[in-house]
Structure to design on (517 residues):
């Protein structure tokens, strides 16, 4: 190597980023070239000067950042949570808990379930084609106008507006109540609100005795886009881990679910019973899984079943 | 393998497993695990943001935005890469945005006028090896302002690569991976950054 090539290579040489061959070439040249050695010294001096100006966050700044983060998460995620914790991480825990376990978010799920309840009860109790006449004074902020059907002025300066509206209503009852259970089944499929789905599936999982409840849990496990809902459904299906239909669904979920946490829970559930039909699925996962922990979990399960790790 | 080396490898593997378990707990909604995860990385994130942006306000913004993004998107983390790489992708993207905006806005002054008189925004930072000797401090100030100017001459990408290699000690291959570019491109960035800095700081070193 000549001086020009070595000078160009020195920054990368200093950072140990040259290939072995080039590095050797640089070192050979440096042994016999004072000018390039001086160049290397300048590179080292530059690095030392930069090191002397390195900034380290003060503990106060770090504490402030942590505090602000906790508050930001709290502000962002819990507009309706009853605030009880006083320290930032306590507030943060509440917020985080509320995001994932919306049971403590009292207002939002209650409102959403109530909206759903309106549809359910209205369909059952209000005769089709019935209309009510109200005055402007009756339109309160609680009423949500979903569409205006017609606007008709008359000669007296009044106007008649025909509209569809939904109104918030709160239904309460015991979990064993059939109407409540049916509302929960509907809420478990509430597309726009994962919080309502998590909560509903969480409640249904403890009432998983009827076929329609089990069907909803299986559907949630297979199709719900929210991993929190899928994990709740899995909990509910635990007691059916030996049921052939449930096991078939678990195997399919293991093969296609995108969330490693869900896949791990599925494995745990599948291996509660030593089932030769499970071996093939676990072997497939060992072959294609890119998550080290999930793969390891499958390998361990296979070893415990005295099955071979791979397929041949 | 030597026993020590084997021990180090198994310690690393164990730490990796621990971290995977923590991340899974976060994905399951465990707030304590999230706090643990934040605390494991937040110092280095703040340090990176601070050294890159050299502004406490911007470093705080980056810190907050980065961890909020982690918080909102942790469920999408699929262990395709290490959590460190995933997090640093988020952080470097936010920092690059700041650097680009700043290029458009002009570099901000370190001293700002306030109702209580001029305040040095860098006071929130602790310089490594800060010196009490007045002469040494003067030289340090001079060096600091020249280094600021040298860093200001770099493109946001050059500055990022240099920061990650020099201050964070990351390998160029990992840097390329993080920034969505090749190792070769990262090498070129580092080379150009070094050359530019030597051009500005040449008489001081």
């Amino acid at each position: 190597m000549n001086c020009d090539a070595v000078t160009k290579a020195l920054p990368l040489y200093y950072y140990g980023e040259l290939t072995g061959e080039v590095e050797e070439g640089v070192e050979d040249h440096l042994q016999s070239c004072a000018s390039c050695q001086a160049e290397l010294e300048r590179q080292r001096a530059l690095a030392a000067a930069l090191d002397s100006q390195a900034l380290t966050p003060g503990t106060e700044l770090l504490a402030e950042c942590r505090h602000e983060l906790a508050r930001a998460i709290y502000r962002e995620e819990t507009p309706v949570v009853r605030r009880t914790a006083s320290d930032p991480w306590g507030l943060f825990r509440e917020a985080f808990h509320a995001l994932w376990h919306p049971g403590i978010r009292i207002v939002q799920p209650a409102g959403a379930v109530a909206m759903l309840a309106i549809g359910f009860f209205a369909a059952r109790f209000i005769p089709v084609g019935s209309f009510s006449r109200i005055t402007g004074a009756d339109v309160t902020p609680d009423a949500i106008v979903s569409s205006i059907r017609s606007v008709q002025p008359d000669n007296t300066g009044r106007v008649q507006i025909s509209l569809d509206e939904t109104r918030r209503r709160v239904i309460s009852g015991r979990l064993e109540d059939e109407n409540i259970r049916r509302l929960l089944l509907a809420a478990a499929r509430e597309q726009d609100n994962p919080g309502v789905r998590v909560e509903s599936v969480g409640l249904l999982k403890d009432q998983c005795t009827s076929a329609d409840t089990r069907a909803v849990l299986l559907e949630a496990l297979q199709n719900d886009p929210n991993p929190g809902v899928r994990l709740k459904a899995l909990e509910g299906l635990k007691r059916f881990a030996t049921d052939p239909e449930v096991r078939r669904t678990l195997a399919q979920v293991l093969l296609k679910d995108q969330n490693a946490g869900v896949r791990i829970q599925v494995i745990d559930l599948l291996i509660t019973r030593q089932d030769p039909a499970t071996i093939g699925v676990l072997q497939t996962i060992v072959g294609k899984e890119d998550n080290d922990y999930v793969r390891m979990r499958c390998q361990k399960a296979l070893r415990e079943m005295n099955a071979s790790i791979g397929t041949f | 393998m030597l026993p020590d080396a084997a021990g180090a490898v198994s310690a690393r593997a164990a730490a990796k497993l621990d971290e995977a378990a923590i991340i899974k707990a976060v994905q399951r909604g465990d707030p304590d695990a999230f706090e643990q995860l934040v605390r494991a990385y937040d110092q280095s994130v703040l340090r990176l943001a601070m050294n890159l942006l050299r502004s406490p306000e911007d470093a705080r913004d980056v810190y907050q935005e980065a961890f909020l993004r982690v918080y909102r998107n942790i469920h999408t983390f699929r262990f395709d890469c290490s959590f460190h790489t995933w997090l640093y992708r988020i952080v470097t993207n936010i920092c690059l945005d700041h650097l680009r905006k700043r290029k458009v806005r002009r570099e901000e002054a370190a001293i700002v006028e306030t109702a209580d008189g001029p305040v040095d925004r860098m006071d929130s930072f602790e310089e490594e090896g800060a010196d009490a000797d007045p002469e040494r401090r003067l030289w340090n100030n001079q060096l600091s302002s020249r280094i600021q100017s040298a860093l200001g001459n770099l493109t946001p990408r050059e500055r990022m690569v240099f920061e990650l290699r020099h201050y964070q000690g990351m390998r160029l291959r990992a840097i390329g991976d993080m920034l969505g570019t090749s190792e070769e491109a990262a090498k070129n960035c580092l080379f150009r950054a070094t050359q530019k800095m030597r051009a500005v700081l040449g008489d001081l070193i």
Summary: The longest strand of chain B covers residues 111-114.
